[in-house]
Each structure stands twice: as structure tokens, then as C-alpha cells.
Amino acid sequence: MKTKYLKLTAILLFLAGSLYSCKEEPEVPEEYVEIDSNEFFYILFSASSIDVPEKELPEWLVAKIRELEATKLTFPLFNARIVRGEWRRQTVYFVYHSFLSNSELYNEFYNENGERLMRTGADDTELCHFRSTSKNWTLIWSIDYVEIDNNEFSRILFSAPPVDVPEEELPEWLVLKIRGIESIQMTFFNARIVRGEWRNRTVYFVYHTFQSSSEYYYEDGERIMWTGVHEPNSPFRNFISTSRNWVLIWRIEGGTY
């Protein structure tokens, strides 16, 4: 009986050891160099392009592409891109288009099944891990903007539809500009301010009859100014072709334009 007991004990100890050895080792936290949002989106928007046949893309992504193409037909200055990468051993996608605001960017990351990876306001630790450990991003599809010239851009600005914006909703620096313009006493003096969007920021164009320089501003009053406006790769060429949603928010008409 004692021999049987010893044998049974030995078997149990062996099985216990086998079970312990089959247990997964605790996951060691992955070490990585942390990168911030600006650097991360720079990586995404500078990703090299590769040719991927549409038949190799998941159905949900093809459906999104059809939606983006339809939007392009309505808004000629619309631009969009899809980049593909890897994260936690799975394929992931970033679907960008020019109507996204900065706060919505993180909403547009998907896994290979079309499920959103995270939303705005997700846990900072998870976002940091995603930014810093996702890799191998490549551009697999895009719609570029249609370039327009200065004359067409001027037509857009000066035919912008008017909207009623209470003065208390305007930034202080812009109200001060309005006061300065109103102080000009001339019969045939004309002025207008139009508001639009560029690269997910509010921008303003301040025009008056005696204007001698470009008066484009960000929402904080910082002037948008470039040299070499007519050069092929001038940022201004991008600005006039991709800014959008221009509306007339204030004007003085002392004569006809």
C-alpha cells in the first residue's frame, strides 16, 4: 500500500510539474521609443506608396473607397489617402480625408476586419503604445487635390456665400482689424473678411481696397505668409487648392467690386 501511495504521489508531482511548465510565461512589457502625435502623423503622411490591386483589399475598405470617390465628385478639392501598417501582429489601416478635424483623426484607424481600433479620448497609454509600436506604414490608395490657379481661387473667395456671425464669436485680433478698417473714411472703399478651413484649422482672408500684401491668417492671428508663391512646390499652391468652406463673415461696400 505504501508503495502504491508513493507511486501515486510521484505521478501527481510529475503532472503538476508538466502543467506548470506549459503555463505561458508572463508577458514582458515591450520596450519602445515613445513618439508624439506630430511625429506619428508625419510618418503616416510621408509613407512611401505601393501598388495594391483592389481585389486584394478587404470588402469593407473597398466600400469606404467608393464613398470617398463619391465625395470627390461633389467636392473637387477633396483629397484622401489610405495607409496600411502593422500593430500587434495584425494589419491595420488609417483612412484619412480632408474633411476630418484633428480631434477625429484617431477615430479612423481600423483593424483588418474594419473594426475601429480606438476613439478620441482613448487611454493615453494605449494611444502612446499604438503610435510608438505600429510600423511598416505604406500608402496604398489616394485621391489628390485638383490644383487651381490664383484667378480661380480669387473667384472662390469673392463669391463666398455670406453667413451671419455675431461679433462676440470672432477672435479679438479680428475685431480690432475690423475697427481699424471701419475707421477708413472713403466713399468707394470696399472691404471683406472671409473664413475658411485649411489643414483642419480655421483661416481668414482680410481684404480691403488699398491692400498691398497677402492678408491670410490662422485663427490665432498668425499671418500665413510664404516666399516664392509661384514656385512649383510653394506651400501657397497647396493652400489655394486645398483650403475649403470659405464663407463671407463681414464686409463694407462703399462701391462695386
Q: What proportion of the residues is helical, as a percent range? A: 25-40%
From the spread of the alpha carbons, the general shape counts as elongated
How much is the radius of gyration in Å? 29 Å
The assembly state of the depicted protein chains is single chain
Distance between the termini: 112 Å
Q: Enumerate the spans where pLDDT stays under 50 for 5 or more consecutive residues.
A: 8-28
**Major beta sheet, specifics?**
4 strands, antiparallel
Question: Which class best fits the helix and strand makeup?
Answer: alpha+beta
Record the strand order, biggest sheet.
3-2-1-4
What are the key terms here?
single chain, 257 residues, alpha+beta, 2 domains, 4-stranded antiparallel sheet, 7 helices, 33% helix, elongated
Protein architecture, described:
- The chain is α+β, with helices and mostly antiparallel strands and 257 residues long.
- The protein folds into two domains: 37-143, no CATH class; 150-253, no CATH class.
- It is 33% helix and 23% strand.
- It has seven helices and eight strands, in the order αααβββαβααβββαβ.
- The chain has helices spanning 2-22, 37-45, 59-74, 124-133, 150-158, 172-182, 235-242, and strands at residues 80-87, 90-97, 109-111, 135-143, 190-198, 201-208, 216-218, 244-253.
- The strands form two sheets. It has a four-stranded antiparallel beta sheet. Strands 7-6-5-8 form a four-stranded antiparallel beta sheet, with helices on one face.
- The radius of gyration is 29 Å and the shape is elongated.
- It starts with a helix and ends with a strand.
